[in-house]
Design brief:
It is a single chain. The protein has 15 helices and twelve strands. With 334 residues, it is of the alpha/beta class. The protein has an eight-stranded mixed β-sheet with strand order 5-2-1-6-7-8-11-12, with helices on both faces. Strands 4-3-10-9 form a four-stranded mixed β-sheet. The longest helix has 21 residues, at 207-227.
Length: 334
């Protein structure tokens, strides 16, 4: 059987990570992204790095960078990795170019991207997906995966075979709505990490930063209950127990949640990377989702609203928050 052809729409850190592994396994992949980012691929190629394996470098002549959605025309699978704010425009662009039978896979943060894509692409299969780990651009042309994890999507045998051949661990899930709500709980830390200015391991090692996350998660779980949402269990700790574990003293947390700290020293959230590069963040698709869901059910989410506001302030006036100061600000909002 011929290998499926792939296109990555929104080839930033996550898109280059996924597409790069597929290229390394011999798949035909077109990377569609910003002109400046694609020029880096043309000049430098792409390096895939982790903390546990030697880096893999893909020379420029192995890559197919492009800047327009028409480049997705020949793909059997299109991996969508644009930010949530760009999903509507991406869907309209794809509608004019997708081949009959092409499958679209959303590997995006937030809750509503698959539905947005399905509404604009009738007749095409759209799969919801989830990336459980952070990938950042450590230098131009190099994307670094800072922690292990297993991708999740709705079932598709051909997609799964290609990903596994590429060394990308992937799991089939039929409860992706519950998975996405659970991932959102985890992603509420992205804003805290971005404001801390610290690597994830150092930030999660600080009790006050973990208390900030616990405040956000308790508030989100209360909103979920009001909305009748049951998040999936994705790790060793049930979602309802996680805020209590986060609040433990540092020494106890290190023993109880050692797996949570198995992160390499360079790992950071993508939101931190956005702030460093002067780009708008996805906080409205993370904390903002909790605020919107609360409002839809006659509730408020002041902690998440305050954290979203602080991130928006940092987009225009960067500031690093110490753990005690950030925790005090969020407690005051509550």
């Amino acid at each position: 059987m011929p290998k499926p052809r792939f296109a990555v729409l929104g080839a930033g850190s996550i898109g280059c990570h996924l597409g790069g592994h597929l290229v390394a396994a011999g798949h035909d992949v077109t990377f569609i992204g910003r002109p400046a980012a694609m020029e880096v691929l043309r000049e430098r190629g792409l390096t895939l790095s982790t903390s546990v394996r030697p880096p893999v470098h893909l020379a420029p002549d192995r890559l197919k960078p492009a800047t327009g959605p028409e480049a997705a025309a020949g793909a059997d699978y299109v991996l969508v990795t644009v930010k949530t704010a760009g999903t509507g425009a991406a869907a309209k662009d794809l509608a004019a170019h997708l081949a009959p039978g092409a499958v679209v896979v959303s590997f995006q943060n937030g809750l509503h991207n698959p539905a947005t894509l399905r509404a604009a692409l009738p007749g095409h299969t759209v799969l919801a997906g989830m990336v459980p780990y952070n990938v950042v651009q450590s230098e131009p042309g190099t994307v670094h995966q800072g922690m292990p994890g297993r991708l999740m999507t709705e079932p598709d045998a051909t997609l799964f075979a290609a990903f596994r051949e590429a060394g990308l661990a992937i799991e089939a899930r039929t409860d992706m709505c519950a998975v996405q709500h659970a991932k959102l709980l985890m992603n509420l830390n992205n804003a805290i990490n971005a404001l801390s200015g610290l690597p994830l391991r150092d930030q999660l090692g600080g009790r006050d930063y973990r208390r900030c996350l616990a405040l956000c998660q308790r508030e989100a779980l209360a909103v979920y209950r009001a909305a009748g949402v049951s998040p999936a269990r994705l790790g060793p700790t049930a979602p309802g127990v996680t805020p209590y574990v986060l609040g433990l003293p540092d020494a106890v947390f290190r023993r109880v949640a050692a797996a949570s700290l198995r992160i390499d020293a360079h790992a950071r959230s993508s939101m931190w990377e956005d702030l460093q590069r002067g780009r708008s963040t996805e906080v409205d698709s993370l904390q903002g989702e909790i605020v919107a869901l609360a409002a839809a059910h006659g509730r408020t989410a002041p902690v998440n609203a305050r954290l979203a506001a602080l991130v928006h302030e940092a987009e225009s006036a960067p500031r690093t928050w110490a753990g005690p100061d950030l925790y005090a600000a969020l407690r005051a909002a509550r």
